[in-house]
Amino acid sequence: MIRVLVVGADNFVGRRLVEALNASDWAEPVIAGPIGVGSFVGVKAVVNCTVGEPKAILSTARALYRTLDAREGAPLRIVHLGSMTIYGAAHGQVDEHAGPEGALGPYAAVQYAAEQLARSVGAVVLRAGVEYGPGAPAWGERVGRWLLADRIGDLGADGEGVCNLVLVDDLVAALIAALRVPGIEAQAFNIAQRDAPSWNGYFAAYAAALGRPLKAIPPWRLAIETLLLAVPLKVLQRLLRALKLGAIRIPEPIPPSLPATCRQTLRLDVQRAEQVLGLRWTPLDIGVKAAAAALDDRVQTGAST
Q1: Is the pLDDT of residue 305 over 60?
Q2: What is the CATH topology of the domain spanning 2-213+253-300?
Q3: Closest by alpha carbon to 33, among 41, 25, 44, 21?
Q4: Which of 75, 99, 164, 199 could covalently link to 159 via disulfide, CB atoms 3.0 to 4.6 Å apart?
Q5: pTM of the model
Q6: What number of other Cβ atoms are within 10 A of residue 280's Cβ?
Q7: Cα–Cα distance between 214 and 217 in angstroms, integer?
Q8: Hey, where are the domains in the chain?
Q9: 6 contacts 49 by C-beta, under 8 angstroms
Q10: How far apart are CA 23 and CA 84, in angstroms?
């Protein structure tokens, strides 16, 4: 048994990874606390699963990788969960040798900086696509709630971009493979299902799994959601949290970036992940059924979002 330090074990990816490692016969997960030299005593591998707010992603990467860089006897394997957003405005088929195109937005710039820190210590980098499925808050549960409320649907030409989906289960399998496959230090891998659908295709499959007809959303309605309502709803959301009134439900804002995201034609080349890490991808119909079932369970139990 090897001890694996899991950084970010409190998020939807980290929790699933800890469960998988606990169920294995070769690894013992160790949940990371504040990063310091003592964090790595007896640890043979480290996985950084930090996701969410850009500030947390970058501050964790700095603390973790600078401490590892200064420490003698580093763990045998370091795995960093990164993001496809580091490719920026790239389009068409993109493999791991590609660099960023165009100016990176704030989130992508943080992901790029965190990846560079990871690569400086020889980490295996997984550039994840659009995470969906049970427990995935942004592109799984949130999209499901929008579909149930008929706030998104068939976006027409605005939804014909490539949706580089990766089911949470497949992402966890990729993290485990990155821990176990020998000789891949300092290498990067794109992680997303082969033959990714369009965003309209994803919305249609998810809506069908939810038992909902997919409604057409005209450009003017999407513009109202993303340009007029998004910022006020976000401000109200933060105000309610600050006042400890988070139980009050308001419509969840659809970010202004969504139309551009759904038009992007970047398609991740995942050949190396399949050949080197031995990954196989869960079919979309199975993935959305799992996502819909999990969302239904949360709605019925009144789980907070």
Answers
A1: no
A2: Rossmann fold (3.40.50)
A3: 41
A4: 199
A5: 0.93
A6: 11
A7: 9
A8: 2-213+253-300
A9: yes
A10: 29
Q: Give me 140's structure tokens.
A: 């799984």
- The two most distant CA atoms of the chain are separated, in Å, by 58
Helix (H, G, I), strand (E, B), or coil: what is residue 163?
coil
The answer on pLDDT for 243 being more than 80 is yes
Nearest to 4 by CA among 49, 37, 34, 36: 49
What 3-state class would DSSP assign to 157? helix
Say which amino acid occupies 241: R
Token pair 């970047």 in the structure block, residue: 266
* Tokens 């990874």 found at: 17
How many residues make up the chain in this entry? Answer: 305
SS3 of 182-198: CCCCCCEEEECCCCCCE
Q: For tokens 């949130």, name the residue.
A: 142
Residue 233: name the closest of 221, 248, 220 by CA: 248
